[in-house]
Amino acid sequence: MRFTFFGAYDPAYPRSAVIRKGLKLHGVEVRECRSTPKLKFWARYPLLLFKWRGDSDLIFVPEFCQKDVPLAKFLGLLTATGVIFDPLAARYETKIIDWKRKSADSLSAWWNLQIDRAAFAAAGLILADTAAHKAYYVDAYGLKPEKVEVLPLGYDDEFFRPREDGGEPAPGQASPTFEVLFFGSFLPLHGTDVIVEAAKIVAGKDPSVHFKLIGSGQTLDKVRAAASGLSNVEFIGWLPARELPGVIGAADVCLGIFGRTEKARRVVPHKIYQSMGMRKAVITARTPAAEEFFKHGENILFCDEPLAESLAEAVLELKNDTDLRTGIAGRGFERVKENYSPKAIGRCLLEIVGKHFGKK
């Protein structure tokens, strides 16, 4: 079987990278017909047409490539090839609802909605990372439920693996502090303001707990200001991807997301799978999406409202109960290793393909 990954996607982005790797592990031939995401769609269409070979069984349009799905559909019609679209998020949902870059009654909102609708209509099969996200696509865009299938995010188990299993060594020596790690792009759905509020609470109870926030993005300046004067919070900019396993390996606990946006309730971010893949205990907000895959107290700790107080309590609980922390970390690792490794994700996708396209 041949898959052609098609569009202006970033080949290093974890979602599509895990899928490509998983397919190859199952003997699938993976081809790429790609242009840089920096090109406007009218500039990249000729390049994609030039690169198109036309002898694949399926065209796979990866995350954030809504504008490339109509071209994929056109090429699929010419060659009797099915089209799978894996949006990861709708443009309207991200830019208008979550980021609030424009108002819902703006021309930009209308345009992004039309782009999403055109992409969803053109694809033969749409993937969602959670059942909650599938329900959103179905309800918001009037899709038939059978057109949307759930394929969890997964993680690269060769890159993110426990240090004792040969993963990246942590830089430096062991710290006398208890380190709580967040890494991400500081989007509203991440809720980094909640992390800082929790750090304030923890600072008054146990000064040995240190919060490290890695990354940059939309809410960083506001969160930095809120953390002013806190000695137990450290901000670090973006790190090269190769350094991330070492940083995770040096942490005692890793954090998921704590945003109160609707999108935050529908997603389970890469950082949760990646941290669990390195056998780290994870704390995140309780959401319908997170509860699809993980169980509170067994392989993760969930936080409820008030989130900052709940997060502070969970951090101190894991800090003071080594058995609980190592148990959650170990069971979380087994959960993701078995179900969300590239090989597991590849197998799940091939089962979906067999159901929809009859490919063996």
Précis, in short:
The protein is α/β, with parallel strands linked by helices and 360 residues long. 44% of the residues lie in helices and 16% in strands. β11, α11 and β12 (301-303) form a beta-alpha-beta unit.
Describe the structure in your own words.
There is one protein chain. By secondary structure, the chain is an alpha/beta fold. It folds into two domains: 2-154 and 341-357, Rossmann fold; 163-339, Glycogen Phosphorylase B (Rossmann fold, 3-Layer(aba) Sandwich). 44% of the residues lie in helices and 16% in strands. The chain is built from 14 helices and twelve strands. It has helices at residues 14-25, 41-51, 69-79, 91-98, 107-122, 131-141, 192-203, 220-226, 244-250, 270-277, 288-293, 307-320, 322-339, 342-357; strands at 2-7, 29-34, 58-61, 82-85, 125-128, 148-150, 178-184, 209-215, 233-236, 253-255, 281-285, 301-303. Strand 11 (281-285), helix 11 and strand 12 (301-303) form a beta-alpha-beta unit. The longest helix is centred in the C-terminal third of the chain and has 18 residues, at 322-339. It is globular, with a radius of gyration of 21 Å. Residues 166-174 have low confidence and may be disordered.
Question: Keywords for this structure?
Answer:
Rossmann fold; 360 residues; 6-stranded parallel sheet; 16% strand; 44% helix; alpha/beta
What's the topology here?
Layout: E1 2-7, H1 14-25, E2 29-34, H2 41-51, E3 58-61, H3 69-79, E4 82-85, H4 91-98, H5 107-122, E5 125-128, H6 131-141, E6 148-150, E7 178-184, H7 192-203, E8 209-215, H8 220-226, E9 233-236, H9 244-250, E10 253-255, H10 270-277, E11 281-285, H11 288-293, E12 301-303, H12 307-320, H13 322-339, H14 342-357
Parallel strand pairs: 1-2, 1-3, 3-4, 4-5, 5-6, 7-8, 7-10, 8-9, 10-11, 11-12
Helix pairs in contact: 1-14, 3-5, 4-5, 7-8, 7-12
